[in-house]
């Protein structure tokens, strides 16, 4: 029997599946979820705790999986009667899946275009649904996944841009897309991200310092990548005082990269350094003073207070 892999991040919500889902253990396919089950609640939590990125379906059932995805995402975006927690889980998972797809296939124009289109829709979802931001930010990144981190940074960046009065649809779409893809340089890296930057060994710190430029270099020749997105990948660890890997100061940094840098610093503390959301802005204010615009930190503090 032939199988094809599917991303766990696409399996969200209460819609029942029309296919069987398998996990691969010692080269054997073990049935994990049966046709008629759904990926909500405890099932989703267990999958994330196992750090399982992919499952498998029988190749003959791939069209059923595609139908499931289409119906799931359409319901999440357009069915206002569906509870926001379920909608947010589905949409967050779709954004994560799109990001993972570009990470794994950066040469694919189709994958990039789909991720870009979805980024624009995500902006509208976060801005136009009062509880969407809270629900997405409430999804803990238990497996420290960099694509999940990208979605969180995108969510914070959208909220920060909104407070800054940035409403142009093209700019917010590219801001979101760049946020999703900002850590492309960490894809396939062996670096342990779950440690404070200040406590990294010299070797780890050097690897970390290279990841923005290495990520940008890997996609610079991809003509379908927007230059703004490449800028964000290259500059997202820069600080306004010139203390980042490239030594750029604020006047030389793409303004959208400055926003992503602020949001990224916030979520690095929350996701990879396990700082409570309520304390992250205070830590940024005290320990990272001068690295990010003061109004960004103050706004992020207000944004996170709403959670």
UniProtKB/TrEMBL annotation:
SUPFAM superfamilies assigned to the protein according to its UniProt record, in alphabetical order: HD-domain/PDEase-like (SSF109604)
Which organism's genome codes for this protein? Bdellovibrio bacteriovorus
Signal peptide region: none
The residue ranges of the HD-GYP domain are: 124-307
User: Which named protein is this?
Assistant: HD-GYP domain-containing protein
């Amino acid at each position: 029997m032939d199988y094809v892999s599917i991303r766990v991040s696409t399996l969200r919500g209460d819609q029942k599946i029309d296919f069987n889902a398998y996990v691969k253990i010692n080269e054997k396919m073990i049935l994990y979820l049966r046709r008629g089950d759904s990926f909500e609640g405890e099932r989703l939590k267990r999958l994330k705790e196992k750090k399982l990125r992919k499952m498998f379906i029988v190749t003959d059932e791939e069209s059923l999986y595609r139908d499931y995805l289409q119906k799931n995402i359409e319901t999440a975006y357009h069915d206002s009667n569906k509870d926001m927690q379920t909608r947010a889980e589905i949409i967050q998972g779709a954004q994560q899946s799109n990001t993972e797809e570009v990470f794994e296939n950066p040469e694919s124009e189709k994958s990039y275009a789909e991720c870009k289109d979805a980024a624009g829709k995500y902006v509208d979802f976060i801005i136009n649904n009062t509880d969407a931001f809270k629900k997405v930010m409430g999804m803990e990144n238990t497996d420290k996944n960099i694509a999940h981190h990208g979605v969180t940074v995108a969510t914070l960046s959208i909220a920060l841009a909104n407070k800054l009065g940035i409403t142009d649809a093209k700019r917010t779409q590219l801001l979101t897309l760049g946020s999703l893809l900002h850590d492309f340089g960490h894809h396939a890296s062996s670096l342990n991200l779950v440690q404070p930057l200040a406590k990294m060994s010299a070797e780890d710190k050097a690897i970390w310092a290279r990841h923005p430029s290495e990520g940008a270099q890997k996609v610079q020749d991809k003509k379908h990548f927007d230059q703004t997105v490449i800028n964000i990948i290259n500059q997202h660890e820069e600080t306004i005082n010139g203390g980042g890997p490239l030594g750029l100061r604020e006047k030389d940094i793409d303004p959208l990269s400055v926003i992503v840098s602020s949001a990224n610093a916030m979520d690095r503390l929350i996701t990879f350094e396990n700082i409570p959301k309520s304390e992250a802005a205070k830590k940024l204010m005290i320990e990272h003073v001068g690295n990010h615009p003061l109004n960004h930190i103050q706004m992020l503090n207000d944004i996170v207070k709403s959670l």
